[in-house]
TrEMBL record, chain A:
Positions of transmembrane segments: none
Alphabetical list of Pfam families matching this protein: Molybdop_Fe4S4, Molybdopterin, Molydop_binding
Protein name per its UniProtKB record: Formate dehydrogenase
Keyword tags: 4Fe-4S, Iron, Iron-sulfur, Metal-binding, Molybdenum, Oxidoreductase, Signal
Residue ranges constituting the 4Fe-4S Mo/W bis-MGD-type domain according to the UniProt record: 67-123
From TrEMBL, chain B:
The keyword Cell membrane appears for this protein: yes
Main location: membrane
Keyword Electron transport: yes
Family: Belongs to the formate dehydrogenase gamma subunit family.
Names of the cofactor(s): heme
Organism of derivation: Azospirillum thermophilum
Keywords: Cell membrane, Electron transport, Heme, Iron, Membrane, Metal-binding, Transmembrane, Transmembrane helix, Transport
Protein name: Formate dehydrogenase subunit gamma
Gene Ontology MF terms: electron transfer activity; formate dehydrogenase (NAD+) activity; formate dehydrogenase (quinone) activity; metal ion binding
NCBIfam families per the UniProt record, alphabetical: formate-DH-gamm
Automatic annotation (TrEMBL), chain C:
Top-level taxon of origin: Bacteria
Keyword Repeat among UniProt keywords: no
Record bears the keyword Nucleus: no
Boundaries of every 4Fe-4S ferredoxin-type domain copy: 4-34, 78-107
PANTHER family reported in the protein's UniProt record: PROTEIN NRFC (PTHR43177), PROTEIN NRFC HOMOLOG (PTHR43177:SF3)
Organism: Azospirillum thermophilum
Alphabetically ordered keywords of this record: 4Fe-4S, Iron, Iron-sulfur, Metal-binding
Protein name: Formate dehydrogenase
Entry GO MF terms: 4 iron, 4 sulfur cluster binding; metal ion binding
Length: 964, 316, 211
C-alpha cells in the first residue's frame, strides 16, 4: 500500500476539525454542521486559520488572487435556491452550498448544482446575429438595434402598434419583467405576455377568483407542518426537487400520509404512501369524488365554511352527482381508494394540497384549480399553517413576472386594463394619461386584453377580419423563450414563417432560430443570464430574493434592462419611460426600477420590499428560522424571509411580509390576513363579507369591504391621515376623493391607517366557492377535446365555442367532430407530457450544459410494458409517435416502463433540434447548437384552450406509437 | 439492498407496526446484499449494476487463486521435468546419430513456428509481469519503475498478439493435415510414447506423434481461446457486462497458466529433453536415426517420396 | 480518527442528480466519467427506490487488492485514493469493485483505457494538498479545506450523507426510528462489513491480499 507523501495522513484541517468536534463533546448538531448534514456547513471551520479554508492554490482557483463570494439565486425553477458563487479575476470558479438559505439550506437539484456552467457559456450566443438568406451574419449592437428599430417603426406605421407581439420571460428579474411590461405600454399594445400563460395562468385565474390572490398560499418550508400531503398533477421530485426536502421532512416527522394523484407513477409517487392513478384530464371528478366522501361523512369544517366561504351549497349540488361509481367510471379510481384518501385528508389536519401542471394545463385548467381550492375550503385548510393551496410555480420568476404584469390582461400588480388602472400607472410613471392613450391604436384596444402567447401564431395567420385588432401580428419580440414549448408546433412553424420580423433576445439561440422555414428577418440579441446582472426574483412562496451580479455579461451579451433601454431609446420614448429611473450609460439601475415598483404596486403589497431590505435579507439569511422562515435575530428580526407579499405599506413601517396568506390567527402587522374583498359586498341579497371571522387584533370584528376614502370617512379614521397623505389623496381623487382606494393612494396613507387598526387594506370577505363571473361558476367535468372516451363526451362536453383575447376559441364543435370520427381507432393511446429533472423548459439552456446533457442524451417516450409487447417495441428502440393533427409525427426512443399505465404515453417536452426525424443542427448559428438535440413533443400536441386564460392543453391528447 | 416487504408496508401505513424499530439500536444498517441491477439514464448498461458482490470472488481469484494456480502449475511442471530429467536424463538417439539428415520443417514451417513461439513467450512474460509484478517486482524495483514496466508490458502484450495470432493461423494451415488424430495415436498414448522405455522403443508415428498432436491442438485451441478472450478483454464491455468480463479474464488467465506449463514441457522436450529434437526446428532437418526412431512411418513416407536419403547399406 | 463513509438513505433519495452534477462542477469531471451516478431499482413500481452511488471507500478495498501496480492508498480516515501516476489503466479495479466506481476515459484497452478516475471523497490524490497538480489530476481537495464532499453537501433531500461513519449511522438510525421504516444503508454490508473492523489498508490496518 502506498502512503500519501508529506503531510498526507492528517488530512489537513478536517481531521483537526473533527477531532475537536468529537473530543470536546460538541453536540451532534455541531458536528453535523461540519459534516454538511444539518445546516451551517462552513461555520465550524471558522475557527481554523483562514489559509486552511481557502483552496490554497489549486486548479481553476488561482493562488494569491482575491476570491470573492457572491450570492445569487438559481435561475431554473421557482423554489429559489440560493447559489453561492466564488469569483476570481471576474471568473466564476467555484460553487458552494448556500447553507444559510432558509429555503434550500445548502442543497440543490441537478440544475442548480450546474449553474456555474452558464457563465462559461461555450454554447451561448456570443454577439448579435442576423439571418440573411438562410445564413447567420455577425453584426454590431448598433446595427442590430438600429435595424430592429427601423423595422418596428415601419410596421407600426403600416399596421399599428398591435401588430407587434412582445413576449417577455419568467426568467427576467422582477425589475426586468416590470420594465418589459412598461415597454409594451409605451409602445402602445397589450400584446405582451410570458410563460405564466402556458404554466400557471389558470392557477392565477382560479385562486384569485376564489379568495383574492393568484399565488401559492403557504411556503415549501411550511409543509413541514402538514399532517397530510395531497399532490395532484405535480412531480416535485423532478420539477421542484428541493421542495421535496421539506415535504419528506413533513412526511417523516409527522408520519403524514403522502398521497400522489397522477396518471404516471412518478419519482414523487415513489415516495408516496398512497398512489392514485387517474386517467389524464379527470381531476374535477377526482376532487368532487373526494368531496363526496367528505360531505357524506360530515368531515367538512362547517364553522369555517359558514364564516369564510360563499356558495358552498351550489358545490354540494354538483358534488352529489359524483358518486363513487361515477367517479370510478370516469377516472378509473376505485371508490375504496377515494374514501381512504378523503379520510386521510380530513382526519390529519392541517392537510395541504399541492398542485402543478397536471392540473393547470388543461382545457378545464381554471375549473380544476377551483375544484381543488374548494376542496381545501371545505376542509378549512386555507389560511392555516401546514394547510394551504401550495401551488408550485414554474420558472424562477414566474410568480414575479406575473405579479409585475407581463400579461395580456393587466398592468403590474393585477390592476387590470381599465381606465382607472392606466391612470394609476400614469401617475406612478409620471406621464400624461393622454400621452399614454395616444400611444395606442385606440382607447378600446388600450383596455382590451391582448393576444396570449399560446395563440400568437393563430394571430399571425389570421385574416384581418378574424381578429379583433387592426392587423394580424407581423413582428415578434421574443425575450427568453424556448420556442418548442407551445402546442401545435406545425402551425407555429407556419406562423413563424409568416412573420416579417422576429427578434430573439436570449442567451441561447432557441428553437425559433433553428426553424428552417425562416431565411430572413430574424435577429438574435445575446441577452445575459441573471447571474450576469442584478435584481430581485420572487419564488413560489412569494419571497423576493435579491440576486447579486456574479460576473460581468460574458462575450458581447447585455442584460435585459440594457436591451430594453436601447430599444426604448431607438423607438423614441426612453425619456418618458425612464423619467424616474437612473440610467448608467445605457443600463437602467435595477434598484431604481424596484423603487418605482414599490411606489406603484400597492394592490399586492409589493411595496415593503425595498432593495435595501431585500439585500439585508440576503446578507442575513442565517438569522431566519428554517421552518417558520422568520428572523429571530439580527437586523431583519421579525421579518419573514424575502418579505413574501403582501408586505404592506412603506418599507419604513417594516411590515414583515406574509408567510401564510389569509391567516386570521395573526395580526395583520404580524403577517396575518383575510380573504380579499374583491367582488363587491353582496350578491342576490347575500353578504359576501366574512361572517364573524377577522384577523387577530382587528378593530373591526367582522367582515369589511376594501378600504377607500369613503370607508375611512365612514369609520371616522380619515382624520388619522397626515396632511401630506391627504394632499396626495386629494391630488389623485380630485373632486371624487371618496373613490380613492388603498390601491390607488400613492401616499399609502389609507393602508397605513387600516393596518393601524389591525385591518387588512383589501377588506375581509368570504372566499367564493361559487365564482359567478367565470364560464363555469361551479367547476364541472368536461372531457378533453381529444378524449379517449367518446362515449363520455356527450355527458361531459367541452365548453361552447367562443371568442376571447381577440380570437376565436373552438371547443365543443371540435370535440364533437373528434368524438364522431374514427380518430380514436387511428390514435388509440393517450399522450401526456411533462418534465425531467435535468432539463428546464424548452431545454436549449440546459441541453447546452454538458454536466446536465450527459444525463439525458436522447428524447424518449415512456410506454407501458404491455403496450410495448403488443406493438413489438424494445426498450431503447426508435419509435414514431403520431399525433392526430397536421399529420404530425416525432421520432423518439421508447422507454418501456411501468411508470405509465397501459394505454398512456408520456413524453418530456424539453427537446428540440429535430423535426419529424430530421436533425436541425446545421440551422443553429455556429457554435450555439445545444449538445443534445431531440424531437419536440409539441410537434404532436394538439388544439385545446382553457376558456378563462387560453392556457394550452399539453397534458391530454391522442397518439399512435409505431416501431420506427 | 433489500427492499424487504415489511419496510415498504411500514412506509405505506406510516403507523408503527411490529417491524417498526423503536430505538436506534434496533435499526438495521447492515442488510444482506445481493447483485442489484436497476435503471440508469446514462447510456451505459454496465453502470446500471448497483452492487455486484460477485466481484469478491473475482478479487479472490485475481489476488490469490491465479497466482497460486499459475505459479503452482509452472513450478510443478519444472519440478516434474527436473525429476524426469534426473530419472531419465536426455532421451538419446538410440542408434546414435547417423550423420545423414532428413529434411523435416521447411523455411515457412520454421518461420511459422518461431513467430508463434517468440510471440507466445513474449506474451507470457508480459502477462506474468502483471500477475506477479506486485509481489515480486515492486519490492525490488519500486512503484514508479514497475508502473513503467507494466505499461510497457501491457502494450507489448497487446501488440504482440498480432504476430501471435498470425503465427497461429499459419501453423494451423501448414500442419493441420498431419495432426488429424488416427489409430496409431492411441497406441502411442497407451505406451506414453515409449517415454519410459529406456530401450528406445518408440511406437509407430507419422509426421507428428500423439504427443505432438496434443501440443498442436492445445496450441491451436488454447491459443485461439487466449486470443478470443484476450481481444475481448481489450475492448471491455463490448459484448458482455461486468460478470462476463470477470469470466473472460478468468478463462484467459487460467488458460495462460495451463499453456505456459504445457509449453515449458514442450520446450523441455524440444531442447535438453531429447537429443536431436531441436534440429527439427533449428536447422529444419533431423538425423535419420532420430526420424526412424521417433517418426518411423513419416520417415518411410519421406523416403518413398524421395525426400529422405536412401537408407544406408545395412552395416550388419 | 473519523472513519469517512457515505450513506445514501434511499427513502429520501429522489433521483434528482444534484450529487452527480455537483461532482462534475466541483472537479470539472469530463463527459463520460461518472464518479457518481444514480441507479433506480424497481422502476415505475411501488417500492421504487433510487440510490446514489460512487466509490464507497471500502474497508479492505477490493480495487486496491487487485490493482497490479498497487497504486491505491487509504488515508487515516478511510478515504481510498489512488495514484494516477502509477495507474496503468488496466481496468481490474472496476472488475473487483462491488459498486462500479472506477471510471475510465476510454472504452478500449488497446494500449490503455487511460488513467482510472474515481470519486476521491473530495480529498484529492496522493500529491500535496491543494496543489495545482493535485487539482488537475484528481479535482479539488475539499477535505483538506475542512469541507465535506460537495455531492453530499448539495444533496437536495439530505439523502446522501458523507462524514464520520458513526455519526452517519446515528443519524440514519434516528431517521428510521422517527419515521418507522428504512431498508438498511445500501452498500454498507458490502463496503464496510458487518463488523466494522476499521480500515484494513489504513496505516496500521490489516494488510490485504496481494502485497
Ligand atoms: N426539472 C425541471 N423543473 C422544472 C421545470 C423544468 O422544465 N424542468 N419547469 C418549471 C416550470 S416552468 C413548471 S410550470 C413546473 C411544472 O412542474 P410539474 O407540473 O410538477 O411538472 P410536469 O411534469 O409538467 O407535470 C406534473 C405531472 O402532471 C401529471 N399529469 C399529466 N396529466 C395529468 C392530469 O390530467 N391530472 C393529473 N392529476 N396529473 C396529470 C404528469 O404525469 C406529471 O407527472 O416545473 C418547474 N420546474
Ligand atoms: N407539451 C408540453 N409543453 C409545455 C409544457 C408541458 O408540460 N408540456 N410546459 C409548459 C410550461 S409550464 C412552460 S413554463 C413552458 C416553458 O417553456 P419556455 O419558457 O419556452 O422554456 P425555457 O427553456 O425555460 O425558456 C427560457 C429561455 O429563457 C432564456 N433565458 C434564461 N435567462 C434569461 C435572461 O435572464 N434573460 C433573457 N432574456 N432570457 C433568458 C433561456 O436561454 C431560454 O431560452 O413550456 C410549456 N410547454
Ligand atoms: C523456445 C522454445 C521452443 C523450442 C526449442 C521449440 C522446439 C520445437 C521443436 C523442435 C519442434 C519440432 C518437433 C518435431 O520435430 O516434431 C516444435 C514443434 C512445435 N512447436 Fe515448438 N518450440 C519452442 C516453443 C514453442 C512455443 C512457445 C510454441 C507455441 C506456443 C510452440 C509450438 C509448437 C508446435 C505447435 C509444434 C508442432 C507440434 C509439435 O511438434 O509438438 N513451440 N517445437
Ligand atoms: C491474442 C492474444 C492475446 C491477447 C489479445 C491478450 C490480451 C490480454 C489482455 C487484454 C489482458 C489483460 C491485461 C490488461 O489489460 O492489462 C491479458 C492478460 C494476460 N494475458 Fe493475455 N492476451 C493474449 C494472449 C496471451 C497469451 C498467449 C498469454 C500467455 C500465455 C497471455 C497471458 C496473459 C496473462 C498472464 C495475463 C495477466 C493476467 C493477470 O495477471 O490478471 N495472454 N491478456
Ligand atoms: S432548479 Fe429549483 S430546486 Fe433545483 S436548484 Fe434551482 S431553484 Fe433549486
Ligand atoms: S467502492 Fe470500489 S473503488 Fe471504492 S474503495 Fe470500494 S472497491 Fe475500491
Ligand atoms: S486501472 Fe489503474 S488503478 Fe485500476 S487496477 Fe488498473 S492500474 Fe490499478
Ligand atoms: S465525494 Fe467528491 S469526488 Fe466523490 S462523488 Fe462526491 S463530489 Fe464527487
Ligand atoms: S442529490 Fe440526493 S436526492 Fe438527489 S439524487 Fe443525489 S442522493 Fe438522491
Ligand atoms: Mo411553467
Amino acid at each position: 500500500m502506498l502512503k500519501k507523501t508529506g503531510s498526507a495522513t492528517p488530512r489537513g484541517s478536517l481531521s483537526r476539525a473533527l477531532a475537536g468536534a468529537l473530543g470536546d463533546g460538541v453536540s451532534r448538531r455541531g458536528f453535523l454542521r461540519r459534516s454538511g448534514l444539518a445546516t451551517g456547513g462552513l461555520a465550524a471551520v471558522g475557527a481554523l486559520p483562514a489559509t486552511m479554508i481557502r483552496k490554497a492554490d489549486a486548479g481553476p482557483i488561482l493562488p494569491n488572487v482575491e476570491l470573492v463570494t457572491r450570492k445569487n439565486v438559481c435561475t431554473h425553477c421557482s423554489v429559489g435556491c440560493t447559489v453561492i458563487a466564488e469569483v476570481q479575476n471576474g471568473v466564476w470558479v467555484g460553487q458552494e452550498p448556500g447553507w444559510e438559505s432558509p429555503i434550500n439550506q445548502g442543497t440543490h437539484c441537478a440544475k442548480g448544482a450546474s449553474v456555474r456552467e452558464l457563465t462559461k457559456g461555450s454554447r451561448r450566443v456570443k454577439y448579435p446575429l442576423k439571418l440573411v438568406d438562410g445564413q447567420w451574419q455577425r453584426i454590431s449592437w448598433d446595427q442590430a438595434i438600429g435595424e430592429i428599430g427601423d423595422r418596428l417603426m415601419e410596421i407600426r406605421r403600416q399596421s399599428g402598434p398591435d401588430a407587434v407581439f412582445w413576449l417577455g420571460s419568467a426568467k427576467f428579474s422582477n425589475e426586468g419583467a416590470y420594465l418589459y411590461r412598461k415597454l409594451a405600454a409605451f409602445w402602445g399594445t397589450n400584446n405582451v405576455d410570458h410563460q405564466a400563460r402556458i404554466c400557471h395562468s389558470t392557477t392565477v385565474a382560479g385562486v384569485a377568483n376564489t379568495w383574492g390572490y393568484g399565488a401559492m398560499t403557504n411556503s415549501y418550508n411550511d409543509i413541514q407542518n402538514s399532517k397530510a400531503l395531497l399532490i395532484v398533477g405535480g412531480n416535485p421530485a423532478e420539477a421542484h426537487p428541493v421542495s421535496m426536502q421539506h415535504m419528506l421532512r413533513g412526511k417523516e416527522h409527522n408520519r403524514a400520509p403522502f398521497i400522489v394523484i397522477d396518471p404516471r407513477f412518478t419519482r414523487t409517487a415513489a415516495h408516496a404512501t398512497e398512489y392514485v392513478r387517474i386517467r389524464p384530464g379527470t381531476d374535477i371528478p377526482v376532487a368532487w369524488g373526494l368531496l363526496w366522501h367528505i360531505f357524506e361523512n360530515g368531515w367538512e369544517d362547517k364553522e369555517y365554511i359558514r364564516q369564510r366561504v360563499y356558495g358552498m351549497d351550489e358545490v354540494r349540488a354538483e358534488v352529489r352527482k359524483w358518486t363513487p361509481e361515477e367517479v370510478e367510471r370516469v377516472t378509473g379510481v376505485p371508490g375504496t381508494q377515494m374514501r381512504r384518501v378523503a379520510e386521510a385528508l380530513a382526519k390529519n389536519k392541517p392537510s395541504t394540497v399541492i398542485w402543478c401542471m397536471g392540473v393547470t394545463q388543461h382545457t378545464v385548467g381554471t375549473a380544476n384549480v377551483r375544484a381543488l381550492s374548494i376542496l381545501q375550503l371545505a376542509l378549512g385548510n386555507i389560511g392555516v399553517a401546514g394547510g394551504g393551496a401550495n401551488i408550485y410555480r414554474g420558472h424562477c420568476n414566474v410568480q414575479g413576472a406575473t405579479d409585475f404584469g407581463l400579461d395580456v390582461s393587466t398592468l403590474p400588480a393585477y390592476y387590470g386594463l381599465a381606465e382607472g388602472a392606466w391612470k394609476h400607472f400614469c401617475r406612478v410613471w409620471d406621464v400624461d394619461y393622454d400621452y399614454m392613450k395616444s400611444r395606442f391604436a385606440s382607447k378600446d384596444l388600450m383596455e382590451a386584453k391582448g393576444i396570449p402567447t399560446t395563440r400568437w401564431f393563430d394571430a399571425v395567420l389570421a385574416q384581418p377580419g378574424q381578429i379583433e385588432q387592426p392587423s394580424p401580428l407581423r413582428a415578434m419580440m421574443c425575450f427568453g423563450h424556448g420556442g418548442n414549448t407551445v402546442t401545435r408546433m406545425p402551425e407555429m412553424v407556419k406562423g413563424l414563417a409568416a412573420l416579417s420580423l422576429l427578434v430573439i433576445a436570449d442567451p441561447h439561440p432557441t428553437t425559433f432560430a433553428a426553424i428552417r422555414e425562416r431565411r430572413d428577418g430574424t435577429y438574435i440579441l445575446p441577452a445575459c443570464t441573471q447571474f450576469e446582472t442584478d435584481g430581485s426574483r420572487t419564488c413560489s412562496n412569494r419571497s423576493m430574493q435579491w440576486g447579486e451580479k456574479v460576473v460581468e455579461p460574458i462575450f458581447e451579451s447585455k442584460d435585459d434592462y440594457t436591451i430594453i433601454y436601447l430599444l426604448a431609446r431607438r423607438l423614441g420614448f426612453a425619456e418618458e419611460m425612464f423619467k424616474h429611473i437612473t440610467v448608467e450609460g445605457t443600463r437602467p439601475v435595477p434598484e431604481d426600477i424596484l423603487r418605482e415598483m414599490n411606489r406603484g404596486c400597492l394592490a399586492i403589497g409589493a411595496t415593503g420590499q425595498s432593495p435595501e431590505r431585500l439585500k439585508m435579507h440576503m446578507k442575513h439569511q442565517a438569522d431566519f428560522d428554517k421552518i417558520t422562515m422568520r428572523a429571530a435575530d439580527g437586523p431583519c428580526r421579525g421579518d419573514y424571509y424575502g418579505l413574501p407579499w403582501p408586505s404592506w405599506g412603506h418599507p419604513e413601517i417594516r411590515h414583515p411580509g406574509s408567510a401564510v396568506l389569509y391567516d386570521t390567527s395573526r395580526h395583520v402587522m404580524d403577517g396575518g390576513g383575510v380573504f380579499r374583498a374583491r367582488f363587491g359586498v353582496e350578491r342576490n341579497g347575500v353578504s359576501l363579507l366574512a361572517d364573524g371571522s377577522y384577523s387577530k387584533g382587528s378593530d373591526i370584528r367582522d367582515g369589511y369591504p376594501e378600504f377607500t376614502m369613503a370607508v375611512l370617512r365612514k369609520l371616522g379614521w380619515d382624520k388619522e391621515l397626515t396632511a401630506e397623505e391627504r394632499r396626495v389623496i386629494e391630488a389623485i381623487g380630485g373632486d371624487k376623493i371618496d373613490e380613492v382606494s388603498w390601491q390607488t393612494d400613492l401616499s399609502m396613507g389609507i393602508i397605513r391607517v387600516a393596518l393601524k387598526h389591525g385591518c387588512v387594506p383589501h377588506g375581509n370577505a368570504k372566499a367564493r366557492a361559487l365564482a359567478w363571473n367565470l364560464p363555469d361558476p361551479v367547476p364541472v367535468h368536461r372531457e378533453p377535446i381529444y378524449s379517449p372516451r367518446p362515449e363520455l363526451v356527450k355527458a361531459y362536453p367541452a365548453i361552447e365555442d367562443r371568442r376571447d383575447f381577440r380570437l376565436v376559441q373552438l371547443a365543443r364543435s371540435l370535440q364533437f367532430k373528434v368524438a364522431d370520427s374514427d380518430l380514436r381507432e387511428k390514435f388509440p393511446m393517450v399522450l401526456t407530457s411533462g418534465r425531467l429533472v435535468e432539463y428546464e423548459g424548452g431545454g436549449e439552456e440546459t441541453r447546452s450544459n454538458p454536466w446536465l446533457a450527459e444525463l439525458q442524451q436522447s428524447m424518449f417516450a415512456e410506454i407501458n410494458v404491455k403496450d410495448a409487447e403488443r406493438l413489438g417495441i424494445r426498450d431503447g428502440a426508435w419509435v414514431w409517435v403520431h399525433g392526430p393533427e397536421n399529420a404530425a409525427r416525432a421520432k423518439v426512443r421508447a422507454l418501456v416502463t411501468e411508470r405509465v399505465g397501459s394505454g398512456t404515453v408520456f413524453m418530456p417536452f424539453h427537446f428540440s433540434g429535430y423535426w419529424q426525424g430530421e436533425s436541425l443542427r446545421g440551422n443553429y448559428p455556429p457554435d450555439t447548437d445545444p449538445i443534445v438535440l431531440g424531437e419536440p413533443v409539441n410537434g404532436v400536441t394538439t388544439y385545446g384552450y382553457d376558456p378563462v386564460t387560453f392556457m394550452q392543453e399539453t397534458k391530454v391528447t391522442l397518439c399512435r406509437v409505431e416501431p420506427a | 439492498m433489500l427492499l424487504a416487504a415489511p419496510a415498504v408496508q411500514a412506509q405505506l401505513y406510516q403507523t408503527p407496526g411490529p417491524a417498526t424499530p423503536a430505538t436506534k439500536d434496533q435499526v438495521q444498517l447492515y442488510v444482506p446484499e445481493d447483485k442489484e441491477i436497476g435503471r440508469i439514464s446514462l447510456p451505459d448498461e454496465k453502470l446500471s449494476v448497483l452492487i455486484q458482490p460477485q466481484g469478491r470472488e473475482w478479487r479472490e481469484f485475481r489476488s490469490h487463486t491465479l497466482r497460486l494456480l499459475v505459479g503452482g502449475l509452472v513450478l510443478a511442471m519444472l519440478a516434474a521435468l527436473g525429476l524426469f530429467y534426473l530419472f531419465r536424463g536426455t532421451i538419446r538417439i538410440h542408434a546414435g546419430r547417423s550423420g545423414r539428415m532428413v529434411p523435416r520443417f521447411g523455411g515457412l514451417d520454421r518461420f511459422a513456428h518461431w513467430t508463434t513461439a517468440v510471440s507466445f513467450l513474449v506474451m507470457a512474460a508480459t502477462g506474468l509481469v502483471l500477475t506477479f509484478g506486485r509481489p515480486l517486482l515492486i519490492p525490488l524495483i519500486g512503484h514508479p519503475a514497475f508502473t513503467g514496466l507494466a505499461v510497457w508490458s501491457k502494450s507489448v502484450h497487446n501488440f504482440v498478439s498480432v504476430p501471435f495470432v498470425f503465427g497461429l493461423l499459419l501453423i494451423l494451415v501448414l500442419w493441420v493435415r498431419d495432426n488429424i488424430p488416427e489409430k496409431a495415436d492411441w497406441i502411442w498414448l497407451r505406451t506414453l510414447g515409449g517415454l519410459l522405455d529406456k530401450g528406445g522403443e518408440h511406437p509407430e508415428a507419422g509426421r507428428f506423434n500423439a504427443g505432438q498432436k496434443g501440443v498442436f491442438w492445445s496450441v491451436v485451441f488454447g491459443g485461439a481461446a487466449m486470443a478470443l478472450t484476450g481481444y475481448l478483454l481489450m475492448v471491455p464491455f463490448t459484448v458482455t457486462g461486468i460478470g462476463g468480463m470477470q469470466i473472460l479474464h478468468v478463462i484467459h488467465a487460467v488458460l495462460a497458466g495451463l499453456m505456459i506449463a504445457a509449453i515449458i514441457g514442450h520446450i523441455y522436450i524440444g531442447t535438453i529433453g531429447m537429443e536431436g529434437a531441436f534440429d527439427a526446428m533449428g536447422r529444419g532437418e533431423v538425423d535419420e536415426n532420430w526420424a526412424i526412431e521417433h517418426h518411423h512411418r513419416w520417415y518411410e513416407e519421406q523416403r518413398r517420396k524421395g525426400l529422405a536419403p536412401p537408407p544406408p547399406q545395412a552395416a550388419e | 480518527m473519523a472513519r469517512m463513509k457515505f450513506l445514501c438513505d434511499s427513502e429520501r433519495c429522489i433521483e434528482c442528480n444534484a450529487c452527480v452534477t455537483a461532482c462534475k462542477n466541483e472537479h470539472e469531471v469530463p463527459w463520460g466519467i461518472n464518479r457518481r451516478r444514480l441507479v433506480t431499482l424497481n422502476d415505475g413500481m411501488p417500492g421504487e427506490r433510487s440510490v446514489s452511488m460512487a466509490c464507497m471507500h471500502c474497508n479492505d478495498p477490493p480495487c486496491a487488492a487487485v490493482c497490479p501496480v498497487d497504486c491505491f492508498l487509504q488515508t487515516a480516515d478511510g478515504v481510498v485514493l489512488h495514484s494516477k501516476d502509477l495507474c496503468i489503466g488496466c481496468g481490474y479495479c472496476f472488475y473487483a469493485c462491488p459498486f462500479g466506481a472506477p471510471q475510465f476515459p476510454r472504452s478500449t484497452d488497446f494500449g490503455s483505457r487511460g488513467k482510472m478516475d474515481k470519486c476521491t471523497f473530495c480529498a484529492g490524490g496522493p500529491e500535496a494538498d491543494n496543489t495545482p497538480e493535485e487539482y488537475q489530476k484528481y479535482g479539488s481537495n475539499r477535505l483538506a479545506e475542512g469541507k465535506l464532499p460537495l455531492c453530499a453537501e448539495m444533496c437536495s433531500t439530505r439523502a446522501l450523507m458523507a462524514g464520520d461513519g458513526d455519526v452517519l449511522a446515528d443519524i440514519y438510525a434516528e431517521r428510521v426510528v422517527r419515521r418507522g421504516y428504512g431498508s438498511g444503508a445500501t452498500g454498507w454490508t458490502t463496503a464496510y462489513g458487518r463488523r466494522d473492523a476499521g480500515s484494513a489498508l489504513a496505516p496500521g490496518g490489516a494488510a490485504t491480499g496481494g502485497s
